Amino acid sequence: MPRNSSVADVLFEPHAPVTIPIARGGLFAVRRVYCVGRNYAEHILEMGNDTREPPFFFGKPADAIVVGGAAIPYPPQTSDLHHEIELVVAIGKDGADIAAADALDHVYGYAAGLDMTRRDLQAVAKKAGRPWDMAKGFDYSAPIGTIEPASAIGHPAKGAITLAVNGVERQRGDLGDQIWNVSDTIAFLSRFVTLKAGDIVMTGTPAGVGAVVRGDVLEGSIEGVGTVRTRIS
What we know:
This protein is α+β, with helices and mostly antiparallel strands.
């Protein structure tokens, strides 16, 4: 909507804002979702890639976020839906060209999240050199748990990050294994875009990604941060 337009000028009712619950009360209104690709060495190797490249980013629409442990539907046009457990960073302060030393001042809090991926579509896109949008940015592709404010938990730099499917552990890593830590990731990303309060950064997944099917229950946990849960319907 143009800045000088009124609500009465809008063709249809604006969509409700996307929000994530905050652990100690309130809601975090989401603006954009940025995702870091290939940020744990073992996951990079299991996907057949090289660990020596700088970070790169892809996006998900804000309304792909699912909260409250709600079930998510198995998406269409895939037969290979994968789980990826990730540390989610909630940006609470605007900034561009942010120095790594100042980056954590821009973080409001943290959560556990899932980057659900249509792996077969991603493989086709990779082979053809095409964007990953339909592999990563589909409906209900970003379940996220409750945000814990950094003022309460600090800025976790290490700690177990795990994902279980139907009670059986599939993924286990440590936040300390990230190639690009939160400070470096924010600094690098802010060279390309102005980060705004309300932005979400999903920081990559450890090794152990794999397929899920209808009926599976996914439970992720990050030490000192929280949990995320969903069921594939």
